[in-house]
């Protein structure tokens, strides 16, 4: 991924701001890293408090984000077309998006797998690096964790309350003593990536910081700096259980390294190096294989114990930032700045099984449901695509809104889908619930 946020961030600021279509258009997208107060953001351009939107409101015709299209000089449909025409995909390799189109699978739209449930305005999801979008994690159908400026927030959709779990704007240091832990801690950590699973939370930072916290314990339990290299951004973190039952996490770093930490012993257990910065890593369900993607068009499948390459993954045309395994352990997916998600079968890697195309830009985040029924892929902004993985990715549900996407997450029981939306005026947390056909109830009518 891009090491510095100079020219790249200028590019992002220009392209990722909500386009100012008319003089009185309400959109005023925030430049990456701006930290205006939440209080200001909760009001629209007419200084009206923007309420949450419920499923009942949406059924009555209210816009799910609360955007008052009827009072604006442009319709939603026209603005959508303008966004599709004007949004510029960030590419490290020029014209990669156009080059990938000929291979893309034609999918049928109109799937109805998850239905809108609530848009929560009081939860402000934010992004610090425009290429890293793994900042939203669900631990149950009612519980979600996300970054909001310098705070990691817990949101309960059951009680509709938010709680600050960790604030990294000041000094953060471990309150437990473990060998290898950086006891002096960190100050003003810029969180680039996040992972939450069960009761463990890991935050990765721009300077290689790793902050570990158990949600059922006070304070921080472990701090580490993966590297003191200048090129030290922690790009992704994955938490998993080893075959022995011990909790581990794997950190992908811009210094070309992948590091495995044992959280039972609180120490570094493996360190693999690759020829290019690693943007994302995914471990197969059986723990034997690793998908490695980064600043190279080709990804690689490697042995998780030795780090040795088993096979290159050839087909993408730009740098990749997302990967995920299907729970069957055979299928996995990779997301790229060439605007595509490729589906692979580990039993035959000569070519990808399918190539799925985005609308606006890079595929920055991919998630499978725990039952393997659906796969979600998120673009940088405006679109999350939910595919019917069980039936060969032939059909999709296209979730359409306006704003940058900070992350997507299915709940472990597959019942909820959370989407973080980052925008100065309409930033929020979207919740969709799985559609269920309870046909047995018809017999009672």
From TrEMBL:
Q: Tell me which Gene3D superfamilies the record gives.
A: YVTN repeat-like/Quinoprotein amine dehydrogenase (2.130.10.10)
Q: Which InterPro entries match?
A: Quinoprotein_ADH-like_sf (IPR011047), WD40/YVTN_repeat-like_dom_sf (IPR015943), WD40_rpt (IPR001680)
Protein's recorded name: WD repeat-containing protein C2A9.03
Q: Which organism is it from?
A: Vitis vinifera
- Give the keywords, sorted: WD repeat
Task: List, alphabetically, the SUPFAM superfamilies matched.
Answer: Quinoprotein alcohol dehydrogenase-like (SSF50998)
Chain positions of WD repeats: 313-354
Disordered: annotated segments: 27-61
Which Pfam families does the record associate with it?
Answer: WD40
Q: Where is the composition biased (Acidic residues)?
A: 35-44
Question: Which PANTHER family does the record match to this protein?
Answer: TRANSCRIPTION FACTOR WD40-LIKE FAMILY-RELATED, WD REPEAT PROTEIN (AFU_ORTHOLOGUE AFUA_8G05640)-RELATED
């Amino acid at each position: 991924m891009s090491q510095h946020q100079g020219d790249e961030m200028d590019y992002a600021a220009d392209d990722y701001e909500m386009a100012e279509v008319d003089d009185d258009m309400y959109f005023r997208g925030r430049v990456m890293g701006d930290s205006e107060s939440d209080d200001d953001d909760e009001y629209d351009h007419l200084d009206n408090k923007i309420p949450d939107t419920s499923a009942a409101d949406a059924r009555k015709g209210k816009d799910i984000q609360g955007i008052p299209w009827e009072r604006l000089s442009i319709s939603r449909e026209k603005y959508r077309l303008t966004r599709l025409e004007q949004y510029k995909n960030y590419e490290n390799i020029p014209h990669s998006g156009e080059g990938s189109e000929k291979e893309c699978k034609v999918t049928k739209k109109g799937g109805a797998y998850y239905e809108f449930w609530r848009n929560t305005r009081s939860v402000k999801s934010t992004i610090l690096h425009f290429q890293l979008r793994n900042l939203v994690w669900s631990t149950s159908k009612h519980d979600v964790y996300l970054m909001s400026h310098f705070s990691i927030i817990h949101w309960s959709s059951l009680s509709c309350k938010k709680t600050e779990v960790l604030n990294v704007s000041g000094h953060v240091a471990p309150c437990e003593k473990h060998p290898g832990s950086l006891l002096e801690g960190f100050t003003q950590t810029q969180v680039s990536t996040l992972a939450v699973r069960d009761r463990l939370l890991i935050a990765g930072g721009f300077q290689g910081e790793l902050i570990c916290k158990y949600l059922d314990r006070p304070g921080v339990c472990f701090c580490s700096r993966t590297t003191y290299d200048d090129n030290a951004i922690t790009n992704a973190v994955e938490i998993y259980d080893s075959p022995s039952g011990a909790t581990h996490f794997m950190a992908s770093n811009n210094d070309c390294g992948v590091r495995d930490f044992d959280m039972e012993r609180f120490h570094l257990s493996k360190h693999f190096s690759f020829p290019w910065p690693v943007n994302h890593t995914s471990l197969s369900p059986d723990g034997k294989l690793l998908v490695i993607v980064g600043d190279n068009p080709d990804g690689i499948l490697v042995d998780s114990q030795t780090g040795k390459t088993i096979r290159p993954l050839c087909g993408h045309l730009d740098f990749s930032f997302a990967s995920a395994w299907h729970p069957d352990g055979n299928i996995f997916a990779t997301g790229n700045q060439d605007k595509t998600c490729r589906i692979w079968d580990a039993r035959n890697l000569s070519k990808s099984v399918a190539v799925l195309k985005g609308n606006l830009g890079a595929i920055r985040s991919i998630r499978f449901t725990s039952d393997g029924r659906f796969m979600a892929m998120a673009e940088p902004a405006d679109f999350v695509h939910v595919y019917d993985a069980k039936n060969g990715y032939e059909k999709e549900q296209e979730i359409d809104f306006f704003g940058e996407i900070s992350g997507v997450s299915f709940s472990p029981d597959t019942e909820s889908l959370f989407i973080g939306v980052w925008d100065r005026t309409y930033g929020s947390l979207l919740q969709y619930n799985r559609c269920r056909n309870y046909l047995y109830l018809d017999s009672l009518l």
